[in-house]
Amino acid sequence: MNILGWIVVGLIGGVIAKAIVPGRDPGGIILTILLGIAGAIVGGFLSVALGVGNGINNFDLGSIFLAIVGAVILLIGYHLVAGPSRDTI
Fold first, then answer.
1. Per-residue pLDDT tens for 18-36?
2. Strand, helix or coil at 41?
3. Which has the closest alpha carbon to 19: 66, 64, 68?
């Protein structure tokens, strides 16, 4: 997959993951794309480790699903490390 494909998969995966995981998350569109790309990498490694796929190598629904799963895992990990946010007015 070329760089443009990774950006599109990252954007879609990051946006959907941010919609799934509740809470305030830092960053704008660039961080969302990076979250989705990192999620795609995590999801690809996870699918290979579990023996259910060969990772992410095409632009298809499976790649987007793996990006979403990986990004959700990363967001949950972020929330566990960062703890509850303290919003001040």
1. 888 877 766 777 777 788 7
2. helix
3. 68
